[in-house]
Amino acid sequence: MAKRDVPLRWDRKMQQRLARGEAAALGELYDRFASLVHGLAHRVLDDERAADHITRDVFAHVWEHPDTYDPRQGPLRTWVATLTHRFAVQRLRATETAALVRGGPGTTEELETKVRHASVAARADYIVQSMPAPLRAALELAYFQRRDYRQTAADLGVTEDEARRRLRLGLQLLSTARDAAGAPHPPGAPPGYGGAA
């Protein structure tokens, strides 16, 4: 139990430092989460420059509104990911809607499908990055190196039963990415993060 309190303690202290206007706190937060923010934004938008803009927007929001984070609702990392997702989806909708208005190809239904697919992909990335290292390692071996559970067990130095368990748990976690895209906020998922924002 004490192990789980440590990150939340860091999160609370970080929020307090940001609320006091400590620029060093923003720098630490940026160092810790910038690659997460940029990666999620890029996953939704598929555009490097747009992801750069979202990254700036997210950290500007955190700097200007640190009081909107409530440590009782979950980790700071999840809040930052939720902000990123929301901002990226808003930008995707705005950009694609503007293209439709200008007579570009597609329909509003296709736009919503694109938003849902981008949301699922970004949420899956977040889940993989957040899952415990043993589960992530098993999934990476199975997916990227095309290992079956026996080969995964040998590569990880675990029993075949343990390899199957890790793969099953990892895949169950990943399945929540797709489930959340078309459903209301599932228990335990970041608020507003899975569905169409």
Automatic annotation (TrEMBL):
Domain RNA polymerase sigma-70 region: start-end pairs: 29-94
Gene Ontology MF terms: DNA binding; sigma factor activity
Keywords, comma-separated and alphabetical: Sigma factor, Transcription, Transcription regulation
A family per Pfam: Sigma70_r4_2
SUPFAM superfamilies (UniProt xref): Sigma2 domain of RNA polymerase sigma factors, Sigma3 and sigma4 domains of RNA polymerase sigma factors
Domain (RNA polymerase sigma factor 70 region 4 type): residue spans on this chain: 127-173
GO biological process, one term: DNA-templated transcription initiation
InterPro entries given in the database record: RNA_pol_sigma-70-like, RNA_pol_sigma-70_dom, RNA_pol_sigma70_r2, RNA_pol_sigma70_r4_t2, RNA_pol_sigma_r2, RNA_pol_sigma_r3/r4-like, WH-like_DNA-bd_sf
Sequence similarity: Belongs to the sigma-70 factor family. ECF subfamily.
Name of the protein this chain belongs to: Sigma-70 family RNA polymerase sigma factor
Organism, scientific name: Streptomyces coelicoflavus
